Predict the structure.
Amino acid sequence: MTAPAPSLLEVQRALLACVAGDGCGAPLSQMIDDVDPAACLAIYRNTSLSTLTTALSLTYPAVRKLVGEKFFEGAARVFIREQRATSAWLDEYGRQFGAFLATFSPACSLPYLPNVAELEWSVSRALHAPEAPGIDLDRMARLSPSESERLCLVAHPALSLIRGDFPADTIWHVVLQDEAGLGSIQLEQGPVFLLIERHDSNVRVQRLSEPAWRFTAALCAGTPLAAALQQHSDAAADLLIGEHLAAGRFIDFELCQNSNASH
Amino acid sequence: METPRSFANGPIPARAGVGLRFAHHREVIETRPQVAWFEVHSENYMGGGPTPAILEQVRDHYQMSMHGVGLSLGSADRLSEPHLARIRALIERFEPGLVSEHLSWSVVDGVYLADLLPLPMTEEALDVVCRNVDHAQQALRRRLLIENPSSYLRYRHSTIPEWEFLTAVADRTGCAILCDVNNIYVSASNHGWCASDYLAALPAHLIGEIHLAGHSVREVEGGRTIRVDDHGSRVSPPVWSLYAEAVDRFGRVPTLIEWDTDIPALHELLAQARSADEILDRRPDDRPRAIAA
């Protein structure tokens, strides 16, 4: 008796286990018409791993330089096994790499590495995020006072806010552009509050004061503008909101249900 | 408001083009080299920001085709609607002369495997591919070109020769064929097929584009060799010979030089394109090519 032919889905799941996991098992080998199925399968495993590793190294060039190519490839191999790509748009792949590095024990002697990775992810996002329309200020000006109370801003998809324990911005800049400055980095200078955005087709990384960052983060989290202005009076928020709008950091607004909501 | 751009329109010319890679963006914009057209990988220009903006500058001066590596037309799963939407946005933005994808699969259970994996050549797989090509052509509102794959394994339960499978997809869906001559050579060498017979079995009137690339030879256990389609070197002499056969059979067809790993200087790519043009020029232009996308 011969076994029934496997379905397409069975073939694809068997290859998934082989290419993305540990299991190039006997059932898969039996499907393949070759004296050495393992040699054929190794080509696909290697191509898949190398394509995803390249995608990570394009997104995380500073991390790669900090740890060296060999270490990076080893870390990437472990990460790729844990977090497979879910989209063929590989610019979207690797968001969790910073969180992974924070728990990856071989990297524990570089405590700033996750912060640098988080910044590089934000930079990549700023580079590749979709284009977005400008906010309709005329429509905003026509809101009634009660509607204005409920106004929540929608952030540009290229905008990120990061709080880091280490000066990730300085490390990132020095590693990629100014290695002579490596010795001058003060790791103990305290937390940094960063805003990352796309500006004229380039990525801009800037430091904010802690109050300004908290006010901006509240807006990005959907706190109504009126409530955020009230809660963050220490942030020179009236001036800051004008700057945010002029810089195109918010692209739209909606009217929230509850003016006191902070979600 | 940005003004709409006006690109050079019309079909991709039946000349040699080259695959545009990031390493050559600046040089192409600054020096505007003599080449008939460029092809790009769709997935490299998705989203917004500076990268697709650079491509617009290239598109202002050159005909362009878009070649996808991620639609996974052979997936038993349904196609990814977000991915289709991104390709559709690219088509609207860049108005490519041709849009192509592969006879392969890359996605199962929502995992993208980052390689073009081979399909079992069965009636079930044929139904799945035709269903997916129909859906993609409707969603993209374009006629697709489907490329024959290179492969390193065959399944015991395959029942249809690859060239018949590809022809059946074109017959049933109305898609055209992108004939990758290097892939035919690689697969034929790996599986013991006759490359010339493969070419001869393809329907000449449906060939809308030809791909050429380099491949490498790897030795595996037992002294056996496998040819690997790594796009990392010049087109090899036997592939040039097979290309001459293809041009003889299919007529003058837009032909692309692909080079994706160990990317050389642009002039080296352009020299490969000139070699392809010399072979195209030997063929009288007896038959207008009109594979409209």
Notes: The CA atoms of residues 20 and 219 of chain B lie 31 Å apart. Chain B touches chain A through 52 residues (CB under 8 Å). The first helix of chain B runs from residue 25 to 31.
